[in-house]
Amino acid sequence: MxxxxxxxxxxxxxxxxxxxxxxxxxxxxxxxxWAMIVMAAFMRGISDKMFHDGIQNLTSHIQIHESKYLDDPxxxxxxxxxxxxxxxIDNNPQIVKWTTRIRVPAVVASEQDTAGLTLVxxxxxxxxxxxxxxxxxxxxxxxxxxxxxxVIIGKKLAEKLETRVxxxxxxxxxxxxxxxxxxxxxxxxxxxxxxxxMEKSVLFLSIDTAKSLLKVDEEISEIAIEIxxxxxxxxxxxxxxxxxxxxxxxxWYEIEPLLKMITDLYNSVGIIWHLIVFLAMGFGIINTLLxxxxxxxxxxxxxxxxxxxxxFILIQVWLEAIMLLVAGLLVGNLVSWLTVLATGDGIDMAKxxxxxxxxxxxxxxxxxxxxxxxxxxxxxxxILGLLTGLYPAWRASRLVPADxxxxx
Length: 408
Description:
By secondary structure, the chain is an alpha+beta fold.
């Protein structure tokens, strides 16, 4: 391959013999690379945000309940956390956080209105690390401990009830004896969640206060668990079921199947998008290089007549395609990185707020670039160059010198 430097020189010069055509195909490659990387970052951002918000909205990675609780979420279908249970949880190295909750249907009433919702009794210390609540307080304060007598409600619920921090509300539910349990509480905080549905449907109070209201001792409705690697959820669920076969233990995707379906859908859309860009770029490159080959038929015939082997012509045309792709990759990656960098914390989709709320997301969608997406996008373009550049190069190498020289 002593003639390889010469072929590089010929390929680079030939690229700029027709500046307009070269710039058009280079722009197409840059646009394709940019589209694949930025769209992948956007899709990844949507998927990651939906997953994070879903987990933070009281779902967690794994949940444990009494066997009948999910079908009938009343206080009678509760479980107790004894020392054996705590030992099993605390000795599992893959479980990094866990908390207990009381979670039952309730009705809340203010001076102006009433609303049905879910009463959630929490341990403020452990809940702060497991869900969105503490970081989303916009007015008032967070609960100070397990015996705090105040309640926290959503901003939208406060608007519906026409109440505010410092005002009293009446909370009603069904206690363990199947009697109506009602008590007055003072609102100590308002939270602002990613979705209006969460703000309207959940009320938080301390777990000991909830137990007192519902007349239970140590019973709880739910244990929420966070693990170090989400991919090991099935394995940990199996381990826990061996220790506690009588309990209902589920991973996040069984608790929120819609969340699983949507995140999988966005991953599939990303693959389809890559395929569309791949085909569009492929046809464009093949068409452009074939035009270049036809325009230079006389030249290729003359080269062969002078003794240049067909293999060298194939390599020369192939190099032209590869050089275009390398230049397009470098610029495309740079432009993609600058685009994502320019978005900062994400894109504000407030104009589509209603649709975003229906999808369970907030208004700001972040862009998220991961190494896997970068590698896939660049590999797609490299493979594309090797495949699409090969056919025009092969056509050029198969020209018959006598016919090529005499062709006008």
